[in-house]
Amino acid sequence: MKLYNLKNVAKILLCGSILLGPTGCSDFLDEQDPSNLTPESFYTIPDHAEAAIAATYAGLRFYGDGAGIFSANWQMLEAVTGTATTETGQNSDLNNLYSLTYDGNTAHINNWYNGLYRIIANANLALDKIPTIPFLAPATEAQKTRLLGEARFLRAWAYFYAVRLWGDIPLITTPQTANSTDFLPSRAPQEEVYKLIVEDLLAAEAAGLPVTETNGRATQIAAKSLLAKVYLTMAGFPLSKGATHYKLAADKALEVINYSKANPSTLNLFNTYKEVHQENLKNRVEHIFMIQYNIAVAGNPLGDYYPNFKPVTYSGPGGTGSTVPTRSFYGSYETGDLRTVDQEGWFYTTYFTNGDGARFDLGAPYVFKHFNQTANGTQGVPGTRNNNLNVPLIRYAEVLLIFAEAQNELGAPTQEAYDAYKKVHDRSKLTTPGFGTFTQSSFRDAVLRERWYEFAYEGITWFDMVRLRKVFNEKTKGFDAFVGHLNLNVGSGVALQTKHLLFPLGIQEMKNNPNLTPQNPGY
């Protein structure tokens, strides 16, 4: 027996004998179970810092978590746009989102709030504890700086969603316990929240992140792209910062575009739309930042896009059809737009029985943008049954259109703005009008229409509606004012109201924290 073991056995025996007397062996009794980790005992080595950041990334997957029968959190951002409808109608919360009758009890709304603040809490804990960890060789201070940059990127991402969904929100930047002085925080003005978002993204941009990467972690290009998106949003409603922030958005987007021009094989548009949802191309080329999925941990969560009980996968008849395109939106695409061509663009109207069998007609258009042919199979090729497809959050196409929109708002379309728009539009195989045919107004509408068609079913359209106070009219192909616009996805249409510019705070959250009052107007 080793000396170490002999010493410990002797110590236990000694403690046992002393326990029979009037005193105890305090160092033995006070010993803590190493499996009961606390923030104080855990953050001691660089591997712990890496684990903290990994946990924060993992929090992004709340996006695809379930929200009751035949529904998931991501559907909240699609149901309210009017571009989607449902074939099942069995989830009352989802139905309320489609009909714009949701309130603070709606599960999706509460799940989004909790999910975003879990990311923020994990990021805050990492930002608080990682600086206290000694990064000794082979670890480096550069590694520490990079991890802190990733934490700030993820915190900014979460706050950017939260402030757009609820407006004034609690601004929490430190780890919280029941004894924290601000354990029940009040809501901070949106201006303060955006200030933190910008500070975090600027810090992330300067944190020594790789310029690009294929492992799914934050990069300099991701930080620049998200910052351009934040500036564009700040230029519009509700902050209405206008020209200064359109300029910031254009300049930051141009940095990304210039990198693409110098490195076209690393950052660019895919040649085809099918490559956008090709499993072996995730985190590459057009995909700047994505939520990571792998069946070993968590498979792709967008199965609610499958048609209701039709055999498009290896599983045979199945699927929920709880989020499907409206005929009116699908029909509004210009004739010849490759995005509407069956199995070539964003939609499919036929598929192969059980994934790899005979072709059959679906009877309606369905969303193909997130359909994983590697997992589900294609004609004559069985699927792997492992849906490892990621969910895109930022694509290079969006950076191009951010630049085009922002640059145009500075006075008139420029050749560079036109070129960015044309690059996206040309992929549709439609003819792009010449540069000289556009005015500032007509170019604005062209870019916004392109956003509606390009980013449908990616969780982007609703935020465009809110920041622009405009909604695409599928009949006129123009734009209506937000308030009063009729969504065509439910019955004869449900009109958007001023209150819909924000979501309500969750009722239970307001009961837990009275300092969140007042509720958002109209709820």
TrEMBL record:
Domain of life from the UniProt record: Bacteria
Record bears the keyword Amino-acid biosynthesis: no
Domain RagB/SusD residue range list: 338-523
Primary localization class, coarse: membrane
One Pfam family, short name: SusD_RagB
Intracellular or extracellular location(s): Cell outer membrane
Keywords: Cell outer membrane, Membrane, Signal
All copies of domain SusD-like N-terminal, residue ranges: 27-232
Family classification: Belongs to the SusD family.
Protein name: RagB/SusD family nutrient uptake outer membrane protein
Species assigned in the record: Dyadobacter subterraneus
Lineage of source species: Bacteria, Pseudomonadati, Bacteroidota, Cytophagia, Cytophagales
